[in-house]
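Handoff note, outgoing to incoming analyst
You'll be picking up this chain. Sequence as last confirmed:
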Amino acid sequence: MAPPTSDDVGAALALAVIGASQAPLLLLDGEFQVIAASDSFVSLFGMESVPVRGRSLFSLGAGEWNMPRLRSLLSAVGSGEAHVDAYEIDMVGPGNRLRHLVLNARRLEFVEASSLRILLTVVDASAARAAEKLRNDLIRDKEILLQELQHRVANSLQIIASVLLQNARKVTSEESRMHLRDAHQRVMSVAAIQKQLAASSLSEVIIKPYLAQLCQSIGASMIDDHDRLSIEVNGDGSAASGDVSVSLGLIVTELVINALKHAFPEGRPGVVTVDYQSGFDGWTLSVSDDGVGMSAANDAAGLGTAIVNALANQLSATITVTDLEPGTGVSVVHTKPVGTAKKADHANIRAV
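Most recent structure output, in case you need it:
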């Protein structure tokens, strides 16, 4: 008996490596006959009790491997026209069990043309796909629950605001009435914010319609004659995250209420203008009026001023107050890239 050659030893070693591979592997010849199969492949597909070597790939199992698409893929690989990387394919096995497989196939080049070999790696990604589907289902359910919560919170806030307004009408103290109306406006602004968030996507809010709805709510309760006094909202159609939009809405609420209370005394007519513009370098929110101006306004620091300054700092934005002659303009500017949050100008914001 002739001693084994180095080629024989190499071939035997290659087959042993394939058999011991942790990855499910098949070594096929040019006719797609199985030359070697890894133990992991045999175990994964339950073929321990049947011979695998020497059989056609397409005859394995109960015939589930006999898929025209798989034949076409391996034919293209064998002819050298293509190689397969992470190709996903669904296979229905015994008992209608669906497997989601990820295939990698390579033609192994030899000196002799008759030595065509194809190395096929088969990964069962069924568990990963099921886990991904479960995760996506949980995320979708969470989003639905969160939207429902947004609706309920908005409805509850509107009820609270109505109670505050009713109490404001009943009290005899003008100071108490003023505080209750201020509380009513702030609760209504948060209710409008919640309503807009519930109606939009959970990730982003289109700012212009959001601020328009907010200002419509404020104007409905604070403006007696809309022919004399009005609120205009402008914007560029850009969007912001839910967190940023909440802060922007609260800032607009404080500044608009401030203007309506102080800029138009004794029935003076005018317009409050809200504008939001966003670009690659940041965004600018402005609230302006054509009222009596800064010199005639009450400069005492109030709760509204503190709220606006705190929110601007939270957004890493700066506040600029301008005397428009007539009227006053307040700009809140956020510049990218975000650095250390700048302190807002506390001095010239009228008290709410």
